[in-house]
Amino acid sequence: AVRSRPAAGAAATRGAGRVHPMVVLRAHAVQAYPPGVDPALLWLLIGVGLVVAEAFVLSIVLAMLGVGALAAAGLAALGAPVAAQLAAFSVTSVAMLVLVRPPLRNALDKGGSTERTDPRMLTGSSATVVERVTDDSGQVRLHGELWRARPYAGTAPLEVGAAVSVAAVDGATLLVYSTDLT
Fold first, then answer.
1. Is residue 172 exposed (0-12), middle (13-18) or buried (19+ Cβ within 10 Å)?
2. How many Cα atoms occupy the beta-carbon half-sphere of 54 within 13 Å?
3. Are 39 and 32 within 8 A, CB to CB?
4. What is the crossing angle of helices 39-57 and 61-77, to 10°?
5. From CA 126, how far away is CA 174, in angstroms rounded?
6. End-to-end Cα separation, the chain, in angstroms
7. Would the CA dihedral through 122, 123, 129, 132 be positive or negative?
8. 138-142, long-range: CB within 8 Å, 24+ apart, which pairs?
9. Which residues lie across from 165 on neighbouring strands?
10. Can you tell me the distance from the alpha carbon of 109 to that of 102, in angstroms, rounded to the nearest whole number?
């Protein structure tokens, strides 16, 4: 006679009080998502929320995590198991943080205007007079930008085309002096 193997449930109820480990795992399994919640929609909301939060934080970290959540949303929409969704979120987020964030941050830092507008950085820079500089008016070109200018410490007016140096910054006005010693 051929004996058939009993079902997992039957094995759990029969015998010397032993319970098959899979039955225990199934009986105590925690549901991954609340009832009635679409996992794809949940991941999508998390991803969009992280990307929107990035606009306020400006660290580029939340955006990378948001992309990971969007990858998990895609898998959830395809019906992938929770473990695959978590793996997609983790792998994508780490890859974005390691591979994409550093070059993106460098590119954004290069485009910054700190060097040209921070008063401490402008002091000592060379400029060219484009409109006669007097105590009342004048303009100079510095790093390709036009700036209002006044002579520094009562120096003489500066004529168009003169090479000048920035001695100080007063608000949005450069205080300049002539570099021509003649």
1. exposed
2. 16
3. yes
4. 170
5. 11
6. 118
7. positive
8. 140/164, 140/174, 140/176, 142/116, 142/166, 142/174
9. 126, 177
10. 10
Say how many C-beta atoms besides its own lie within 10 A of residue 43's C-beta: 24
Q: How far apart are CA 178 and CA 160, in angstroms?
A: 11
* Rounded CA separation 175/158 (Å): 11
pLDDT tens for 30-81 read 467 778 889 999 999 999 999 999 999 888 999 999 999 999 999 999 999 9
Q: What are the tokens at 96?
A: 């974005």
Cβ neighbours of 133 (radius 10 Å): 30
Tokens of 15: 């015998």
pLDDT at 6: 52
- pLDDT tens for 105-118 read 888 877 555 445 56
Q: Quickly count helices (H) and strands (E) in the chain.
A: 8, 5
Helix (H) or strand (E) holding 173: strand 173-178
Length of the chain in terms of residues written: 182
Q: Residue 151's pLDDT band (boundaries 50, 70, 90)?
A: very high
pTM (global) more than 0.70: no
